[in-house]
Amino acid sequence: MEISGEAITDMQQAVSLQTEERYKEDFYFSKTIPQNLRFLEDLSWNFYWSWNKGGSELFRDLDSQLWEKCEQNPRRMLKEISELRLWQKANESEYVARLDQFEANFNKYIRKKIEGFGTITAEKPAAYFCAEYGVHNSLPIYSGGLGILAGDHLKSASDMNVPLVAVGLMYRFGYFRQKIRHDGYQQEKYVDSFDNELALTPVLDENGERVKIMIHMRRREVYAQAWLARIGRISLYLLDTNIDQNDEIDRFITGHLYGGDSETRVVQEKILGIGGVRLLRKLNIDPSVYHLNEGHSAFLTLELARETLESDKSLSFAEAASHVREKCVFTTHTPVAAGNDSFSPKLIEDCFDEKFLSALKLEKEELFALGRSKPQDTEEWFGMTPLAIRLTRSANGVSKKHGEVSRNLWLKMFEKDIKAEEVPITHITNGVHPLTWIAPAFKTLYEKHIGSRWTELLRDQGAWSKAIERLPDSEVWESHQLLKQLLISFIRERTFAKNTGKQDTINERENTARLFDKDVLTIGFARRVAAYKRWNLLMADLVRLLKLVDDADRPVQFVFAGKAHPQDKKAKRILQNLVSINHESNWQKRAVFIEDYDQEVARYLVQGVDVWMNVPRRPLEASGTSGQKVAMNGGLNFSVLDGWWIEGFNGENGFSIGELSASEEKLDEAIHDANDAESLYSVLENEIVPAYYETNENGLPIGWIKKMKNSLATLTPQFSSDRMVQDYIDQIYL
User: Fold this and answer.
1) Where are the domains of the chain?
2) What count of Cα atoms within 13 Å lies in the side-chain half-sphere of residue 115?
């Protein structure tokens, strides 16, 4: 059955457009925009602009300096831009023509008719639950990889016209903003998201009133209102407890992402899981499948069981749970037990009142058992991952290796005689959204040599590989060099500071005019500052490191970025040591740290570096996706064989660190680290540096470009989020 895109949008939003428009006028700023630019206002409400060709440029070209000041937020920009500037652009025929063409493309996209994917239809869409979403840096409700993955999932679902709705939380203060002190130590600050204009509209009922849900917890009623973010064709609903009806402490349930203590986490997860289901009911959305992306939303299974028992009181909990499993699927992203949320029985008891337990037909101990890997172990805390595995019909890891690790990790939940390979946990390897992460320079190159429909060719590995092979080496290199120079300009601007204090650190400079060189091999390393990420591995041998940096003929330069958790003092010291290296060397000229790592910083880094380094301790990398973004922009991965890189590395499309063996994983940490550090330096000195600097008579590094093209050809289709979403549909949702 074919249904128009407009029809599904209306159903999923379940809100009067007329009422919504009236509320926009009352709630948000109003500004007179020239008639021929009016579409900018409509476009600013849909994140479609952020990944489609020419979208961000339409806002940036209004006023490039203001665009950066507004941190690429179209809503804020339209509020702050002068009416004079708008009228100037309204009189530029070329700009107006570009806007008109983008409007035509947008309308065609939104109104495209869709066909359901089997049981996933407009009337019964897939429902995607996640604790964070990295759609764009102007919607700051993400911290890292999980959120970026979720944002890319929604964008691919939109591009593929998958009937899907998403549910999350609206964190008023988001994740922390990072500032590095003069002495190199990290400081954190939180920014009220509502101080900026956000592309969020209140979700209203047919009477123009805010849609709210209520959950009883901690012996009182807690309410949450809903906001709507439009991600192309996808509706993302965000629950927010910051309303007058709530006690002060409850208003801050959705205050911070990954902030607070265990009690904060458990009540957030009740809002997400139970509240998310109740919101969908209020919006008359009846999903065909519920996708729990990580265990944070696992309480939704209990709410579905309660609903089932309420509709048929003759059922037992076990029978209701069987019905719930038929509708729920679970993705785990965490390869270590300690990384999975767990809560004390007392905390769970305080958050679930007797009425809810009675509705579930469960005693307290029976509820606790649902969250234990071993139900009879009364000392074990309540885990969200065991609950999710127990009450879903499908569980998967996010890479082939992670699926294996997860089967071993949760083997204890199953019968004694079962083998690890028989544990019912599969895998869908993560991917990234090509249109979001591939730089304009490479999009232009593809349009020139492959055609305007190059994105469709991405779904055919063989055809794509042949197309990449035909690209002229010189143009591939030129496109990459343009991006590298853009990265260097970004680095110079972001590290410039008039007052740098007395101690030299690599996060700030008084003079950046000669910082970095486009002809020098540039290595990027950006990720969370955590022990298993091994930030200090590169510093294991400073003599060899500085020798690479100081080489007169073949030097290396490094760009770093990443945040340490506010409570992780050890990670903060590691970061401080890195940024404070100050020897009689070129380190200060050839190494930088970019503070406050976010999507905007990531775009410059993954598109502009020559090499992307990744050194997690095996097998603790569930998947990792930043390297996939680098590969889509011609950069080469230099990584430990863990996560997605085990599947991606073919010997010619990048470089590996260490060995791929089970025995290596069982080594003492110090020995493991020493082995990998030796491998890291050896590969750098003997493979990467020589290959990069070997050029032909025209100055082109032909061997290096061959590896770049191999990377573009093999990794772009394999690790696209379009492929990932299709895998979820074929192997999990259906």
Assistant:
1) 31-112, 126-430, 434-718
2) 2
**pLDDT tens per residue across span 102-133:** 999 999 999 998 888 999 999 999 999 999 99
List of residues 6+ apart from 595 with CB closer than 8 A: 178, 179, 180, 494, 507, 561
Separation CA 495–CA 516 (nearest Å) = 12
Domains 126-430 and 434-718 agree in fold: yes
Predicted confidence band of residue 16 (pLDDT cuts 50, 70, 90): very low
126-430 is classed CATH 3.40.50.300: no
Residue closest to 665 by CA, chosen among 613, 616, 614, 617: 617
The gap from C-alpha 356 to its chain's centroid, in whole angstroms, comes to 34
Model confidence over 153-177: pLDDT tens digits? 999 999 999 999 999 999 999 999 9
Q: Pinpoint the alpha helices (H) of 553-625.
A: 569-579, 587-590, 599-608
Question: Which 3 state secondary structure label does DSSP give 428?
Answer: coil
- Contact by Cβ (8 Å): 276, 129: yes
Residue with tokens 């400079």: 509
- The CA distance from 379 to 357, in Å, is 21
Which two structure tokens, joined as six digits, stand for 582? 């100050």
The reported pTM is 0.94
What is the enclosing helix (H) or strand (E) of 121?
none
Say which CATH topology domain 434-718 has: Rossmann fold (3.40.50)
- Distance, CA of 606 to CA of 595 (rounded, Å): 16
